[in-house]
């Protein structure tokens, strides 16, 4: 292929790509003479150059299209949707001919007579005849070419368009092959590595003569690196070029009116990243058009404009690009997603009922998951959003979804700015060094020391208490099967993958360094823990860790981690038959004591001199308030108290109580099977935990001992009780207490989730519900239950801090069988026993 034809193909491909967006723009604004002139000029240029190069088939199609455009430009014919569709069909035919020409060096065979006849008829004002939809023969895709910074000048332009007086001249451009830029990037990468090696040598030496030249070399290298990186950077609008045409065709096919709004199209990112996000963008825009936006009649009924809007927005944030793809449609149908997840066995009814809506929405990223009623040419096969998630993770990005019923859905994609040269944290584990991309590092925490955080264990899993939350940990040396150092020493690299935060235990932390990312060797591509390798300043080769791969390997990322963490979340549901996280401590005697970890707000160490007395009771000034202290050991005295007193803080809202204990023993996770026989005041009974008989704390009893108004104020036999309580604190009080009495308890935080359990067919023997809850309160729940359904005759017990005569009357009128003060454990158990012994109607 000669150079003249190669230049023609490059310019024609760029012109055809610009025509898609221009024609869609022209359809929205038929009177836009500037856009019409641009379209006419490009088609005329292609036609003129075809005659010079001897390309008759391409020239014929371009000439017929030019005739239609000429009538529009002259104003003798109006611009119509049918005419735009016909011109786009001609554009597709031209694109197919150009692709064949590029693949073989000659025009492919084909008959365009029907298309040319339809174009001629349209130019004659007879209306476009229905041209056959014959796609061009499949040919290899054209070779990728680097788009220029600005549109190239036309090869054989017609009469030049007048330039507005005072307009700035277009910047000059030159075409450079992508291979040349890649070679230049490789050389600059090697220069960066050499610069790092020289700086490393200078730091170890004492010769000051080289300090100034090396500093200057380092500055020049950085500027050269920045300049070469700019050659790789392209506007994200290049990835959006085909979307206006796509949205326009989808609107015609689906019978919807769709408007595409693009913001931040000039935001630049690496060409390599740009190529990898094109397919995910297409999937998300198609989903917004098909699933998200309603039909015009549906939008009118909902009080919305008939034209739906899809919005693309890109902007920089730190070292990332944030890309938002949103629509103003119906929003995600969470109920349908729940039903589909249940039908596919992705979660149980109880899990789905206790799951926040944000997690339910993430089921759409599962392979094969689709809520479409039928498979269409646009969607329904369940192969879209999982491709999006996979592609984003491949480049170190994340994706989140936000949706509001009736208002629309927005996907937020966070991707790195470049994959070529990145800032990384150099760490050591097991005697080897590794690089961790800094975009995934949240903070560094040093282990050990007098007051520093320590590694604790839930069963055999390491965790660390970081700002009042448990952070799961993974030892890098153990994960890579290297020699492990003691876990009490070293550092924790707090990392984030999507919404999941976890810590990586390393032995040493060196420094941050700009590294050149080299692809891993083919033999190592199956090791998902690594994303590449690099050369450090001292010449050593180290591996670059893939945080997504590490998270997946230990079950902390993806859908599996979300499922694993549901039961342990403070805000989720709780089940008396499930394993519970328990804090073990010692107080008074040698028998260990246990309390549900979810009830403990904080573990504090209080100096003995800080403990004071008020009304004969020990108190401490805590966070601007007086917090009552209750000793777990009846024989405790201030005179014999240790210099540093351990205190378990129980708190909710502005209330707090401290339980003084002697020693924290462990944090374990086991099934809590309580034997209430022989229980003494303050304890629910005994259980075998960690191989030892352990007393389980009755937290409600100790809270009453503190003298504060916490609650306003063995009977079960395996019967099933549903607890509806929006406060996680009180859920953690009720579930162990009822479980110790022999009931099988399920707790949910909202009335809506309780009703979803009813609709899903869950069976219970009684319902215990709070009265005051957000959105749907307990009274509304009782009325909904009594209206009909499988739960209509279940006993319902109201649990509330408001127990006046009017409150009780309202509760009984709504359908509650009994009304109990919150939280009177004895009264609740008696009420349950009484209500379960008699039908609700009685």
Structural class call reads alpha+beta
Q: What is the CATH architecture annotation of the largest domain?
A: 2-Layer Sandwich
Give the proportion of residues in helices: 25-40%
Q: In terms of per-residue confidence, which ranges show pLDDT below 50 for 5 or more consecutive residues?
A: 128-170, 374-378, 558-574
Number of domains: 6
Strand content: 25-35%
The CATH topology of the largest domain is: Heat Shock Protein 90
Number of contiguous helices: 23
How many E-type strands? 35
Strand order of the largest sheet: 10-14-15-13-12-11
Calculate the terminal CA-CA distance, rounded to whole Å. Answer: 93 Å
Q: Can you identify the CATH class of the largest domain?
A: Alpha Beta
Which homologous superfamily in CATH is the superfamily of the largest domain? Histidine kinase-like ATPase, C-terminal domain
Compute the CA-based radius of gyration: 35 Å
The residue-averaged pLDDT reads 77
- Largest beta-sheet characterization: 6 strands, mixed
Q: What general form does the structure show?
A: flat
Describe the protein in words.
Helix 6 packs antiparallel against helix 7 (211-232). A hairpin with a 6-residue loop joins strand 20 and strand 21. The protein has 23 helices and 35 strands. The chain is α+β, with helices and mostly antiparallel strands and 842 residues long. The chain has 6 domains: 3-123, Up-down Bundle (Four Helix Bundle (Hemerythrin (Met), subunit A)), CATH 1.20.120.160; 178-235, Helix Hairpins (Orthogonal Bundle), CATH 1.10.287; 239-416, Histidine kinase-like ATPase, C-terminal domain (Heat Shock Protein 90), CATH 3.30.565.10; 424-566, OB fold (Dihydrolipoamide Acetyltransferase, E2P); 574-705, OB fold (Dihydrolipoamide Acetyltransferase, E2P); 720-837, 3-Layer(aba) Sandwich (Rossmann fold). The model is unreliable at 128-170, 374-378 and 558-574 (pLDDT under 50). Helices cover 36% and strands 26% of the residues.
């Amino acid at each position: 292929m000669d150079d003249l034809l190669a230049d023609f193909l490059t310019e024609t491909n760029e012109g055809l790509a610009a025509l898609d967006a221009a024609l869609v723009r022209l359809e929205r604004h038929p009177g836009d003479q500037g856009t019409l002139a641009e379209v006419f000029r490009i088609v005329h240029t292609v036609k003129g150059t075809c005659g010079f190069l001897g390309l008759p088939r391409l020239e014929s199609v371009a000439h017929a299209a030019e005739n239609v455009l000429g009538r529009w430009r002259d104003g003798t014919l109006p611009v119509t949707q049918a005419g735009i569709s016909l011109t786009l069909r001609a554009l597709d035919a031209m694109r197919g001919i150009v692709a064949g020409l590029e693949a073989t060096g000659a025009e492919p065979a084909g008959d365009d007579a029907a298309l040319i006849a339809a174009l001629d008829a349209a130019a004659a004002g007879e209306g476009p005849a229905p041209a056959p939809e014959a796609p061009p023969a499949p040919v290899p895709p054209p070779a990728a070419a680097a788009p220029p910074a600005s549109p190239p000048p036309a090869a054989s332009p017609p009469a030049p368009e007048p330039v507005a007086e005072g307009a700035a001249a277009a910047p000059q451009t030159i075409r450079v092959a992508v291979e040349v830029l890649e070679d230049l990037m490789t050389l600059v990468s090697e220069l960066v590595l050499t610069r790092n090696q020289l700086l490393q040598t200078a730091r170890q030496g004492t010769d000051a003569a080289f300090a100034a030249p090396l500093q200057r070399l380092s500055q020049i290298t950085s500027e050269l690196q920045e300049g070469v990186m700019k050659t790789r950077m392209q506007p994200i609008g290049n990835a959006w070029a085909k979307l206006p045409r796509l949205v326009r065709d989808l609107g015609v096919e689906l019978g919807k009116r769709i408007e595409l709004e693009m913001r931040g199209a000039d935001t630049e990112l690496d060409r390599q990243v740009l190529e990898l996000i094109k397919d995910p963008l297409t999937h998300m825009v198609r989903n917004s058009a098909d699933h998200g936006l309603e039909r015009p009649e549906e939008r009118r009924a909902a009080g919305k404009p008939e034209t739906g809007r899809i919005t693309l927005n890109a902007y920089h944030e730190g070292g990332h690009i944030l890309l938002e793809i949103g629509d103003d449609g119906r929003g995600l149908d969470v109920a349908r997603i729940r039903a589909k997840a249940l039908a596919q066995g992705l979660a149980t009814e109880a899990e789905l009922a206790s799951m926040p809506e944000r997690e339910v929405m993430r089921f759409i990223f599962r392979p094969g998951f689709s809520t479409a009623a039928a498979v269409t040419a646009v969607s329904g096969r369940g192969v879209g959003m999982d491709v999006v998630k996979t592609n984003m993770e491949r480049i170190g990005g994340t994706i989140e979804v936000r949706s509001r019923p009736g208002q629309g859905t927005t996907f937020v994609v966070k991707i790195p700015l470049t994959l070529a040269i990145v800032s990384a944290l150099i760490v050591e584990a097991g005697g080897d060094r590794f690089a961790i991309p800094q975009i995934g590092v949240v903070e560094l925490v040093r282990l050990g020391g007098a007051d520093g955080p320590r590694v604790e264990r839930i069963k055999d899993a390491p965790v660390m208490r970081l700002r009042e939350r448990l952070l799961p940990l993974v030892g890098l040396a153990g994960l890579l099967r290297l020699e492990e150092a003691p876990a009490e020493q070293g550092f924790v690299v707090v990392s984030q993958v999507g919404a999941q935060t976890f810590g990586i235990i390393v032995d040493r932390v060196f420094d941050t360094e700009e590294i050149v990312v080299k692809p891993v060797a083919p033999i190592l591509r199956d090791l998902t823990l690594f994303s590449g390798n690099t050369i450090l300043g001292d010449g050593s080769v180290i591996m670059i860790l893939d945080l997504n791969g590490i998270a997946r390997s230990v079950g902390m990322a993806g859908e599996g981690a979300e499922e694993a963490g549901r039961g342990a979340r403070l805000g989720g549901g709780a089940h008396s038959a499930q394993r519970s996280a328990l804090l073990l401590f010692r107080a008074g005697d040698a028998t260990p004591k246990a309390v549900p970890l979810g009830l403990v707000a904080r573990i504090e160490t209080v100096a003995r001199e800080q403990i004071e007395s008020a009304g004969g009771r020990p108190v401490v000034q805590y966070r601007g308030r007086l917090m009552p202290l209750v000793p777990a050991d009846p024989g405790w005295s201030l005179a014999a108290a240790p210099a540093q007193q351990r205190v378990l803080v129980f708190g909710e809202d502005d209330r707090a109580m401290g339980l003084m204990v002697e020693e924290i023993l462990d944090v374990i996770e086991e099934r809590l099977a309580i034997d209430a026989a022989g229980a003494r005041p303050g304890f629910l009974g005994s259980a075998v935990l960690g191989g030892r008989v352990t007393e389980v704390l009755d937290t409600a009893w100790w809270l009453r001992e503190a003298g504060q108004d916490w609650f306003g104020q063995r009977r079960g036999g395996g019967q099933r009780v549903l607890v509806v309580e929006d406060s996680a604190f009180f859920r953690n009080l009720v579930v162990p207490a009822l479980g110790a009495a022999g009931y099988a308890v399920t707790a949910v935080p909202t009335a809506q989730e309780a009703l979803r359990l009813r609709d899903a067919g869950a069976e219970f023997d009684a319902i215990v519900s709070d009265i005051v809850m957000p959105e749907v309160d307990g009274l509304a729940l009782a009325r909904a239950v009594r209206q009909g359904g499988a739960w209509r005759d279940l006993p319902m017990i109201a649990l509330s801090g408001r127990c006046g005569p009017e409150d009780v009357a309202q509760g009984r009128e709504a359908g509650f069988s009994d009304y109990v003060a919150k939280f009177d454990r004895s009264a609740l158990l008696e009420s349950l026993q009484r209500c379960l012994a008699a039908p609700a109607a009685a």
